[in-house]
Amino acid sequence: AVKREVAGDIAVIGSAGVVAELAALDLVDEYKLMLHPVVLGAGAPLFENLDRRRFTHTRTRALANGVVVLHYAA
């Protein structure tokens, strides 16, 4: 219903839980993952409790600060 009411893209930023729920309902068209050059050593998995899926890589963009933006079609 939201996709019909909103012109353009709908983005979810910084909420792995919301993205996992949307993905489980097959409502995600594209993933844009921002890979930051930092090693944390621990943390929550990005796609916890989600069935194995294959994505199609569509684009990679490197930013000046070292972040790499990876685009995948769902």
Essential attributes:
single chain; alpha+beta; Dihydrofolate Reductase, subunit A; 18% helix
Summarize, please.
This protein is α+β, with helices and mostly antiparallel strands. It is built from two helices and three strands, in the order H-H-E-E-E. The protein has a single domain (2-73), classed as Dihydrofolate Reductase, subunit A (3-Layer(aba) Sandwich), CATH 3.40.430.10.
Description of the molecule:
- With 74 residues, the protein is of the alpha+beta class.
- It contains two helices and three strands, in the order ααβββ.
- The mean pLDDT is 84.
- The longest helix is centred in the first third of the chain and has 9 residues, at 16-24.
- The protein has a single domain (2-73), classed as Dihydrofolate Reductase, subunit A (3-Layer(aba) Sandwich).
- The relative contact order is 0.25.
- The two termini are 19 Å apart.
**The CATH topology:** Dihydrofolate Reductase, subunit A
Uncertain runs? none
Estimated radius of gyration: 14 Å
**Strand fraction band?**
25-35%
Domains, number: 1
What is the topology, as strand order, of the major beta sheet?
1-3-2
The beta-strand count equals 3
Major pleated sheet: 3 strands, antiparallel
Quote the average pLDDT. Answer: 84
Overall CATH architecture: 3-Layer(aba) Sandwich
